[in-house]
Specification:
Strand content: 15-25%
Structural class: alpha/beta
Number of domains: 1
Number of helices: 2
Protein name: 3-deoxy-7-phosphoheptulonate synthase
Largest sheet: 4 strands, mixed
Shape: globular
Length: about 60
């Protein structure tokens, strides 16, 4: 089975993916930069893998220090 990548082109789309739990099973690519004021920082690290267009990435397998 192929891994599906979900594309979030706005923060609202990313929030919807997080609210629906899609981040736990799918890779997400965000077409906007990561914001350090992101209220969902903890949920980002529950993700299978999330990458932002500025190169910031996170997953449940590691946390950036």
């Amino acid at each position: 089975m192929e891994q599906k990548v979900l594309i979030a082109d706005t923060q609202a789309i990313l929030d919807a993916f997080l609210d629906n739990g899609l981040h736990r099973d799918h890779t997400i690519y965000c077409q906007f930069p990561h914001c350090t004021k992101n209220n969902d920082e903890q949920r980002l690290f529950e993700a299978q893998y999330i990458e932002f267009n500025d190169g910031y990435s996170c997953s449940k397998n590691w946390k950036m220090l």
